[in-house]
């Protein structure tokens, strides 16, 4: 099974407006889940034993609540050749990612962690310049983060289905 650790992010009216606008762009699939998420740690293909170990670590993970600001959009790998569109996150406590990685006993490869919230996937070559002009620095709101969730992700033709395996409340 594919798994990851993330924070829930409630959709704002501004995010809903962006997602509605994407419905008319050919080759773009907006995220259709009721809540969005900020991925903190992607486990990838995970055995049942590893999933149990991660759940146990998460159950005892200790971290404080925090707030983030959602301002502007970006693209992976680039705006000229987008595959993933995301909302930029500011105010993210970067020590959280390092502490989580260390708690899981994982190697940190030195790449900078880029907190982001995926809102769409691109399946065809698409000109993103109009989206950048309108939403490049657009303010989507704030989000209060008070829980970390360990998810199972099932990829289906209609889109991914996320199921919470375990979670921990932040203090």
Topology of this structure?
Blueprint: E1 2-10, H1 13-22, E2 28-30, E3 35-45, H2 48-59, E4 66-77, E5 82-90, H3 94-103, E6 116-122, H4 129-135, E7 139-145, E8 147-154, E9 161-169
Overall description:
- The structure is a single chain.
- By secondary structure, this protein is α+β, with helices and mostly antiparallel strands.
- It has a single domain (2-169), classed as Cyclic phosphodiesterase (Cyclic Phosphodiesterase, Chain: A).
- It is built from four helices and nine strands; from the N terminus they run βαββαββαβαβββ.
- The protein is globular and about 45 Å long.
- The two termini are 30 Å apart.
Keywords, separated by commas or semicolons:
single chain, 171 residues, Cyclic Phosphodiesterase, Chain: A, four-stranded antiparallel beta sheet, 4 helices
């Amino acid at each position: 099974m594919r798994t990851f650790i993330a924070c829930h992010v409630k959709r704002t009216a501004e995010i809903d407006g962006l997602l509605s606008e994407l419905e008319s762009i050919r080759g773009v699939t907006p995220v259709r889940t009721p809540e969005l998420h900020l991925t903190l740690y992607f486990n990838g293909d995970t055995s049942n034993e590893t999933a149990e170990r991660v759940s146990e670590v998460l159950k005892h993970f200790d971290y404080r609540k925090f707030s983030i600001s959602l301002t502007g959009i970006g693209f992976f790998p680039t705006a000229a050749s987008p595959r993933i569109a995301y909302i930029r996150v500011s105010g993210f406590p970067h020590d959280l990612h390092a502490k989580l990685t260390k708690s899981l006993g994982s190697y940190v490869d030195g790449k900078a962690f880029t907190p982001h919230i995926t809102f769409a996937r691109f399946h065809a070559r698409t000109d993103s310049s109009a989206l950048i002009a309108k939403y490049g620095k657009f303010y989507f709101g704030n989000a209060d983060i008070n829980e970390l969730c360990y998810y199972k992700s099932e990829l289906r033709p209609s889109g991914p289905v996320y199921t919470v395996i375990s979670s921990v409340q932040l203090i």
